[in-house]
Specification:
The chain is an all-alpha fold. It is built from 7 helices and no strands.
């Protein structure tokens, strides 16, 4: 079952349960997937649907930060609830320790010999952790690994 179909089924369930906030959040997510599919002029693959959800999650995280900075906690809470719903459809997020282990295996696999291999390591890491770990956090972990390898 595609993520789009699963979200549609949950919209119906939320409507029947009278969960208006959840219904509205699900509709926003569903709309984002449908817009992307329309732009692509075809049905999206599971990975493409996950990419759309990852973008939506990133938007919510940025909005939460912005609302917290201006002390609009009510709106930040609403964005946080939407983020939680989006995360229900994304694969389980990786921890920093798990990503560090992946980095070590990539470094060994690619036989990294200098700081010039940073891009190759990042490319390999992002292909393995694309929607399960934030890219900027991954970059900082790779930076730390390279500092240990090449002080």
């Amino acid at each position: 079952m595609s993520i789009q179909n699963e979200i549609q089924a949950q919209v119906v369930a939320a409507m029947k349960a009278g969960a208006n906030q959840r219904r509205d959040a699900l509709r926003l997510i569903l709309n984002a997937i449908k817009v992307e599919a329309k732009d692509q002029r075809r049905d999206l693959s599971l990975d493409e649907e996950r990419q759309v959800l990852s973008r939506e999650a990133k938007k919510r995280r940025e909005a939460i930060e912005g609302y917290q900075m201006v002390n609009n906690l009510e709106r930040a809470q609403k964005e946080n609830e939407e983020l939680a719903i989006i995360q229900e459809f994304l694969p389980q997020a990786l921890t920093a320790e798990e990503v560090k282990a992946i980095i070590q295996s990539i470094v060994a696999e690619l036989q990294v010999t200098s700081k010039n291999d940073f891009g190759r390591v990042m490319k390999a890491l992002l292909s393995q952790t694309s929607d399960r770990f934030p890219g900027k956090d991954a970059k900082s972990l790779v930076d730390q690994a390279f500092l240990q390898l090449f002080p």
